[in-house]
Amino acid sequence: MSHLPQRPDWHCRACREDWPCLGARADLLTEYANTRPSLGMYLAAQMMDAVLDLGHPLDAAMYDRFLSWVRPREPKPAWLAPTPRQSYSRRDIVQRAQQILDTHVRLPATGLCAACGADRCPRRAGAIRILYSRYGRLRCG
Ligand SMILES: [Zn+2]
Ligand SMILES: [Zn+2]
User: Fold this and answer.
1) 59 - beta bridge partners?
2) Are 12 and 3 within 8 A, CB to CB?
3) What separation in Å is there between the alpha carbon of 106 and the centre of ligand 2?
């Protein structure tokens, strides 16, 4: 079975990966070896269909999936919305650091970390650095 898209979920019919899967990419690059611009147009059309089928925004992630691998050296067009990065609030960061300090405790008997057993626990050191520096004062428990 060849690597063709299954609509409307845009999985590969052969390997069930997101289409175009690695198999499809290899097939297409071979098929369009001498007509690379046509491959770009074909994939742009497929991308538009996928966006409509999936109800997915036309963003950098979709561009990566459908087009970036065709001409890898070309920069992404500026009109594409950037893929949103997960952002953490100051409170999330302080809370996470506090959690690390609560579990990665230095055992008085051995001086080793209770959670990971390290002599100088890097996670504890990182959490202390976060709490002291940008994100607030260390609250000792
Ligand atoms: Zn496939
Ligand atoms: Zn530790």
Assistant:
1) 81
2) yes
3) 8
Please give the model's pTM, rounded to 2 decimal places: 0.52
Distance, CA 98 to ligand 2 centroid (Å)? 13
Per-residue DSSP letter, 100: H
| Residue 126 CA to ligand 2 centre (angstroms) | 10
76: nearest Cα among 99, 51, 59 = 59
Ligand 2 centroid from CA 103, angstroms: 8
Q: What is the mean pLDDT of each successive set of 10 residues along the chain, which is 141 residues long?
A: 92 96 93 88 92 89 90 63 65 83 89 89 85 58 42
Q: Which two tokens stand for residue 129?
A: 């650095």
Residue 15's contacts (CB-CB under 8 Å, 6 or more residues apart) are 3, 21, 23
